[in-house]
Amino acid sequence: MLRRTAPAPAPGPAPASLSASGSGAGGDGPERAATGHGGGHGSGGGNGSGHGGGRRDTLRTEFAFELPRGYVDDAGVVHRTGVMRLATARDELVPLRDDRVRENSAYLSVVLIARVVTRIGTIDDVHPGVIEDLFASDLAFLQDFYRRINAEGHTRAAVTCPACQEEFAVNLAGGRLGES
């Protein structure tokens, strides 16, 4: 299987970000968005156009995340960070032939998420059994993350500051609130 990834982001501190669950991980390359309240809101971290400065357009196919609670393995080790790749048409079709999905349609998301999550912590063999053992909040996080990167094409969300009512974008794949 051919796996393409975007070049590593430029060095420097990553902006702090929010997520629906209060966590996230990793930068989002040209899709970064500034989220600090002080100093103003707004998108930043590159123009996202892929033009100028000798930069080539690249398709980003892998996205880092941080689970709200984390996967606890058999040894009791908690794994929170991971990587999800973009889904292919095959990823969405193959689970439909799975007997577990035919018996229980709710199992579709478990099989699908297991196909696209390439790593959770130090675990590279992510299979439906691993996804079954996630806490419900972590599964919900991954389902939302899947939807964002595959349907919307990015991990940004528009939000409004509750204090000043200014609208700005946050990167849901970014670091936890307060981290930089």
Structure description:
With about 180 residues, this protein is of the alpha+beta class. It has 5 helices and 7 strands; from the N terminus they run ββββαααβααββ. It has helices at about 90-95, 100-105, 110-115, 130, 135-150, and strands at about 35, 40-45, 60-70, 80-85, 115-120, 155-160, 165-170. The strands form 3 sheets. The protein has a 3-stranded antiparallel β-sheet with strand order 3-4-5. A two-stranded antiparallel sheet has the order 1-2. Strands 6-7 form a two-stranded antiparallel sheet. It is globular and about 50 Å long.
Compact description:
This protein has helices at residues 89-93, 99-103, 108-116, 128-132, 136-152, and strands at residues 33-34, 42-43, 62-72, 78-85, 117-120, 156-160, 167-171. The protein is α+β, with helices and mostly antiparallel strands and 180 residues long.
Helical residues, percent? 10-25%
Q: Please tally the β strands and state the result.
A: 7
In whole angstroms, the N-to-C terminal distance is: 35 Å
Placed side by side, the strands forming the largest sheet appear as 3-4-5
Radius of gyration: 17 Å
Note the main sheet: 3 strands, antiparallel
pLDDT average, as an integer? 74
Shape verdict: globular
- Residue fraction in strands: 15-25%
**Structural class by secondary-structure content:** alpha+beta
Determine the number of helices (DSSP H or I, runs of at least 4 residues).
Answer: 5
- Return residue spans where pLDDT drops below 50 for at least 5 consecutive residues: 1-51, 175-180
Order of helices and strands: EEEEHHHEHHEE
